[in-house]
Design brief:
Elements: E1 3-6, H1 12-16, E2 43-48, H2 62-68, E3 76-78, E4 91-93, E5 96-103, E6 106-111, H3 130-142, E7 155-162, E8 165-170, H4 177-182, H5 192-198, E9 213-219, E10 223-228, E11 242-247, H6 251-259, H7 275-281, E12 289-303, H8 313-322, H9 325-331, E13 339-341, H10 361-365, H11 371-380, E14 387-394, H12 399-414, E15 417-424, H13 426-431, E16 441-446, H14 452-460, H15 474-484, H16 489-506, E17 510-521, E18 525-526, H17 536-540, E19 544-545
Length: about 550
Amino acid sequence: MARIGRTSALTRRHWLGLTGGALAAASALPSAGWAQTPKRGGTLSLRLWDPPHWDPQLQVSYKTHTALTFTHSRLVKHKAGPGVQPGTFPIEGDLAESWTQPNDTTYVFKLRRGVKWHPKPPLNGRELTADDVVYSIERFRTVKGNANAYMLASVEKVEAVDKYTVRFVLKEPFVWFLDVLANPMAACIVAKEAVEKFGDLKKAEATIGTGPFMLERHEPNVRMSFVRHPNYFVAGLPYADGVELTIDTDPASRFSGWLSGKYDFGPEYQQVVRRTDLEIARPRKPGLQTGEYVWFTGGYTAVKLDQDPFKDVRVRRAMGRASNWREFLESSPHAQGQGAPNMAVPAAAADWSIPLAELTPEGRELYEQDVPAAKRLLAQAGYPSGVKVPCESTAGYGPDYVDRMSIALKNYKAAGIDVDLKLKEYGAYISSTIYGKFDKMTFGLRGAWIDPDAYLYRSLMPGQPLNSAGVNDAKLTEMLRLQRRTFDEKKRRELIFDIQRHVAHHAYYLYDASQKVVSAWEPYVKNYGPNNGFDYGGRMMAVWLDR
């Protein structure tokens, strides 16, 4: 039986029913002020990062993909706004007004008519067609240097049925296909003419999309300025005339800027404010709106499973017994003790992350610090005097990440695992280490995705580029494939729980914790709702300012 998806038209009438409101907790929703009429105009001000360059298909970094959510569209996207509970990700159309699934391996998308590219040469505001979608997907799949190409490895072919219809045929059933298309890290739609004119899309002037905003100016390491797309395909949107993104890598500086009114939103990742700073900010920001939710972002340790000493599971379990996820939460200025332990599927994916109590005894022990037990495990593995190993990482995620890494390495050392830390420049780290190009061990961050399959398949399936530990387990491989083919959600959840039990039992990776954080936005910011993910442009598209 065909599966059908259809999004409600994102019209002015739709958005008139939504306004901002404080989210006191992850489950809280605004209850007042829904009848306010949105105001046009003004400039939204946020703190962001500088992209390494602007080509989404030649850059894996979230810093590029986040910036492009303001300028580019996708076939489908995750719904945003105060009506969406943080941690949930309902899918709605973006360029696609509807879609059908005639069988388990075919998806047919009907495109909106009259979608215009930005009025910049060489596009000059021409209409988007199905050929543009096909070109973008094929470039994503085939261009040399796209480290994210594996995200659409399930696609057998994509074709334009007519000017406004695109058909995907998959190699096999893949129940998470729409989630992948909605991910800002995947297939934003780019223009062939821009690629042909500039050779690639790395330069700022090649940043031409169909999204709600147009890139007006980029001053590297200083700021990015966006202006309203005058012919955006959703009538009346965006409400803001522009968006100003300031590059500031120093936590103290950006907090000071926020206090002084430089930013309309919390100055940290995903518009968060540190809990330690929130106490200072509230008296100076009466009416401040906040929302509390669990981050997908968490730390992990990967080791080479086919090399000594890590080929012995007792060494990996010793690392787990040495770890203390609670210590990380207690020391985190973002969490101040609030959060949860991370499994193979992050705790933020509440419906898909297995409860700690449901792991095997060996799996649960990875989350119960016991340094003497860790030393005994090392001795049983033949290392009574401990081991010394190199570990690669980066300082490019900022000082909070460095503090997190220091806690992990300190605890490893207390159990007899002495780490020789080698820090790499962020660009080198993100293009090599996360893909398994390290000697023995790496410590890093994960959190770029919001569907459970991404966390499981990409890091555990043999042959996948993000399987940096080199996991090669026949039983696990079959479970990973089976959950991708299981359309019954209840059965799929049971499979995903079994996968997480198996991964923890064998200690293939070590995960620390997910923080429960607080996003903040000014009282004059309306129709905003915080959430995980990098779709900043999607969340800002319908925000308006009531100054």
